[in-house]
Each structure stands twice: as C-alpha cells, then as structure tokens.
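Now for today's protein.

===
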Amino acid sequence: MTKLITALLTAVATANLNIGVISDSHFNTLYNAYNSGSKCTTTGSSGEVVALVGRYGCDPSEVLIDFMY
C-alpha cells in the first residue's frame, strides 16, 4: 500500500495537472447589470458603474457562469 501511495504522489508531482472545482453554481436569471439595489434584480439604473458579470453581494449573472464554464 505504501508503494502505491508513493507511486501516485510521484506521478502527480511530475505531471501537469489542472483541476477546476465548481461547487453550488447558482445564478440569478433576473440579474440587472445597471442596478445594484434589491439584490441586483430591480429594473432601471442606480447610476453606478455597469457590472456585466456580477456585483459583490448579488448572485452571479448568467454571463459569469458562461465565463466559468
């Protein structure tokens, strides 16, 4: 068993390995890039900078999910 673990660790250490983990990928289908009020779902504009992929404190937009995948 020890030899197997050592062989696996050696293989992983010498290989180019890319891993991506996506957990709990939920998004907001009503996301409004122009308004930060009411969880970023209200219509209109709040006068803030447009945030196409998402804002802090809001569920991400569909655009951000597309970029992730």
